[in-house]
Amino acid sequence: MYKYVLKRLLMLIPVIIGVSFLVFFIMSLSPGDPARTILGETAPIEAVEALREELGLNDPVLKRYVDYMGGLLHGDMGTSYKSNRPVFDEIMGRFPATLKLSLWGMLFAVALSIPIGIISATKQYSLVDGVSMVGALLGVATPNFWLGLILIIVFSLNLKWFPSGGMDGWKTYIMPVITLGTGCMASITRTTRSSMLEVIRQDYIRTARAKGVKQRVVITRHALRNALIPVITVIGLQFGYLLGGAVLTETVFSWPGVGTYLVNSIKAKDTPSVMGCVIVFSIAFSIVNLLVDLLYAFVDPRIKSKYK
Amino acid sequence: MKHTHVSQADSASLQPAKKKRSMAAEVWMRLCRNKMAMIGLAILLVLVFCAIFANQLADYETLVIKQDMSIRLQGPSAEHWLGTDEYGRDILARLIHGSRISLVVGLVSVSISLVVGGLCGALAGYYGGIIDNVIMRVMDVLLAVPSILLSITIVAAFGTNLFNVMVAIGMSSVPGYARIVRAAVLSIKDQEFVESSRSIGTGTLRIILQEIIPNCLAPIIVQATLGVASAILSTASLSFIGLGVQQPVPEWGAMLSGGRTFMRDAIHLTVFPGLAIVITVLALNLLGDGLRDALDPRLKQ
Prior knowledge:
The structure holds 2 protein chains of 2 kinds. Chain A has 13 helices and no strands. By secondary structure, chain A is mostly helical. In chain A, helix 7 packs across helix 8 (171-199), helix 11 runs antiparallel to helix 12 (271-299) and helix 12 (271-299) crosses helix 13 (301-307). The longest helix of chain A has 38 residues, at 215-252. Chain B has a single domain (33-299), classed as MetI-like fold, CATH 1.10.3720.10. Chain B has 15 helices and no strands. Chain B is elongated and about 75 Å long. Residues 1-15 of chain B have low confidence and may be disordered. Chains A and B meet through helix 1, helix 6, helix 7, helix 8 and helix 10 of A and helix 7, helix 8, helix 13 and helix 15 of B.
């Protein structure tokens, strides 16, 4: 098991190198001149040229990339053009806010979707099933930023229950968490339902029932555990959407996280910050995927035995 | 699909052409029996109609982009069914013209990911070995960046215009198609009909195009239908954070973003463009789910 974890951790390295190269390469193809952006349109050409030299922008792309990677190894992601502070500090200062929002969003989604999925599957074609399936279809189709705006209109502007933005006390969490979690909730509900439906038709479930095992125990002990594998896969996949969705949700609710910082950096053409944000999000996503793969082992002993 | 059937000994005597037609017809029949899919298809047909006849339904110059501050921020009325926006432009007219953009972006970006991803997946699956390894490791890297962030990066680097948005969204979903096509190719390439084609001297490219691709169409069609839906969502998301189509072009996400400032007094600016997105994406998802069930009845519960 430890060997497997170590192997997977080592496999993160080429992915991170690849991602940073990809992002670096795309950003270096950008037509604008960062030195010009920093100094403004009216700055003299000599000053712009001097700054280009100072920032190393006149070096070939590959050398710049190697320099950047060298810095990244000790947590140096360059200096923000806008604030003149290290990008790493800027991002790490905001990362806890994004992490909190994402984790609460995922928790909200999982806590509601798995029970709903189970009930839908055990009471197939009932009213509960119908309502939750229509809800799930709508949830998948609704852009989360729009849901956020609608929640603000209803609960903040009209009912005045919750504040429309910021991160200050539990009240400010409710709407962003719902906004971020709903899409995931819909997908996980659908997967849980179809996976449960498949499992409860298996012979061993019938056997368990025939032995007189209570319905509750059949569902929770015999069926759920076997139905969870595809659900975990979807949860892992959804985390990617969740991190992407965090960018939009944070923008809607002026949440002080990495997403808001990313959007502001894009508007300011602050290339090092944009790159830093995308790389941090990608590393976070890769780590989540690793955790998901490890989680399989705990749910399914057959997978665990393969790791040894 | 004919080759799959010819390869099975018991159906070898059947006429391939007739069999092929009946396959498509059978899928269509199954799709028709699926009420949800039919609702999705009907909504989509209305949308396509709106997109094609947008100019006949609402004049672009006078209703969609002409500003008239005397009638700004009006609620729904007989004259303006869905009200007017902050520049006095008719929202319904803008939504109708916006359907053009959404559908075009959806179709073009899915085509980009289909062609690039399909080609990569087919090459990787067909050749295997180093080519497979290199292509799939590149795909792993692309997959490690959450797709909306990859789109954001590309658009932020190259500038905000419709073409870049389509390329960005298309490129960000390349790995999904590459994986599907690769898996399909792997399951098909060693079957007898491919081998027999190779033995009579057919070139590699021709084998991929004529034998392999038609036989892995089913999962691709499903993925593409659902892909158009997520492309429409991504476009709206990009526009919402100011990275999509620019004013005064009537894009749904941009309309929503513009309406944000007036949420307090004129909620219709926010509500209607959002509903347009939800309905379109919902219709595509319903159709995609229906197609999946129709193309592979074994999957259906």
